[in-house]
Amino acid sequence: MTALTLSTAAAPGLRADAIVIGVAKGAKGPIVAPGAEALDSAYDGRLAAVLETLGASGAEGEVTKLPAPAGFKAPLVLAVGLGAEPEKDAGYDAEALRRAAGVAARTLTGTKKAAFALPAADAADLGAIAEGVVLGAYSFDAYKHHGGDAKAKSAKAPLAEAALLGGKPRDAAHKAALLRAAAVGEELNRARDLINMPPNDLHPEAFAALAQTAAKEHGIKVQVLDEKALAKGGYGGILGVGVGSAAAPRLVKLSYTSAKAKKHLAFVGKGITYDSGGISLKPAGHNETMKCDMSGAAAVFAAVVAAARLGLEVNVTGWLALAENMPSGSATRPGDVLRMYSGKTVEVLNTDAEGRLVLADALWAASEEKPDAIVDVATLTGAMVLALGSRTFGIMANDEAFRSSLHEAAEEVGEPAWPMPLPEHLRKGMDSSVADIANMGERMGGGLVAGLFLREFVGEGITWAHLDIAGPAFNEGGPFGYTPKGGTGSAVRTLVRLAELTAAGDLG
């Protein structure tokens, strides 16, 4: 992980491999952002003109390299685009800082130390920059062979240290911002690691074991139900999905408790470690990235650990519904009826609509503890990707105020989200002649139908929301900002922010 430090040192005298500065897009050309005054002075006030000559415009994600001027101990200046110049007297948006820091950290792969002189007006800005550094420096190369070439391995190593200029090491708010950024960023990266792991290594039992290890390290109570315990308890949804695989399913419960907590949140994550579609087999071209179908469980896992690391004054319980969805002679068939943990029966019309089945059991288990609110997270439907694209997740809820609060929290931390409805007329499409409900309904509005199905398994009177992260959970394109190719850790920061707001009493 990249080490984060606060530094009051002047940029010229700081020993580093590079100095990172910000450049904004002004009406008449690039604008050098606050934090780079010493550099601009060394260029006789012409740094913006020099950058423009080199092709810089200040556009978001843009990177321009130039040699540091005489008198600077760092040999390289890395100018990163911040996007449009903010309005007069307005500071730079936290997400713009986060993304710029992420681009810089990614660009500086293989570098030992970089000084970040991005505009930081307060502790919140420092936290955003630090978070962007940790997320942008992420890499997943556990399965790559370097052939014993230490030099090649070193060149691919993430940025080792980031010194945040303008940060005061003895300032309580600055230190707290750095600690929060490290905890949230590192746990989000843990989620990314899990999502990127190949399914032959990350099956339900292995995921459960990793959760047990992390729980022990951070003082989190953990309970794992194996296939025998699931059968004894009547968890027909999780068992019905996992019965076709040689890798047996698991339900993992992670409990973080605070002595000062006044509220209890439950997070429920879909953890399909590989989704072939089951008997309703996915067509060719749709299987290759299905290791990411446990992204919801990874997000829940990471959020609970982050809450523990931050010592939040709220009780948080995470439920990881883990199964592998495979076709075999023992697999659930279209037409089968499953008796769920709640007692309701479900007619399975499509075995590729399996996520809602494992979530249904976990939602009912979470409801039994009567938390103040439940949030489930899942890569649930392709329909949500069609509706919102690959970078935005949908939010559904049985309470409009709670849905709005989650939307605000997501936008605050830089996770694009959009509130979606739960139209009552779509419920009828899931009526079954042989069971209480079918796992499929109308094709149009499929993401909303899935949300309505899940609502059936939330305890009466409990506030609930559903995050469908099918779009942003796995980035199949090139990296951007602080987002890498592959697993993204989508929804981790939204869950952590929700826990923080609940602990502070800001959600009622």
Would you mind describing this structure in some detail?
The chain has 508 residues and is of the alpha/beta class. The protein has helices spanning 37-42, 47-53, 94-107, 123-136, 150-155, 172-196, 204-217, 227-233, 236-242, 295-310, 355-367, 382-388, 400-413, 446-455, 492-503, and strands at 3-7, 18-26, 29-32, 63-67, 76-84, 113-117, 161-165, 221-225, 250-256, 264-275, 315-325, 337-339, 345-347, 373-378, 393-397, 417-419, 437-438, 463-468, 474-475, 486-487. Strands 8-9-11-10-14-18-15-16 form an eight-stranded mixed beta sheet, with helices on both faces. Strands 1, 2, 3, 4, 5, 6 and 7 form a seven-stranded mixed beta sheet that branches. Strand 2 and strand 3 (29-32) form a beta hairpin. The longest helix has 25 residues, at 172-196. The two termini are 36 Å apart.
Descriptors:
seven-stranded mixed β-sheet, 508 residues, alpha/beta, 34% helix, 21% strand
Number of strands: 20
User: In this structure, how is the largest beta sheet organized?
Assistant: 8 strands, mixed
Low-confidence stretches: none
Strand percentage, roughly?
15-25%
Number of helices: 15
The pLDDT mean sits at: 96
Helix content: 25-40%
- Alpha carbon gap, first and last residue: 36 Å
Strands side by side in the biggest sheet: 8-9-11-10-14-18-15-16
Structural class category:
alpha/beta
Tertiary shape: elongated
Radius of gyration, CA atoms, in whole angstroms: 24 Å
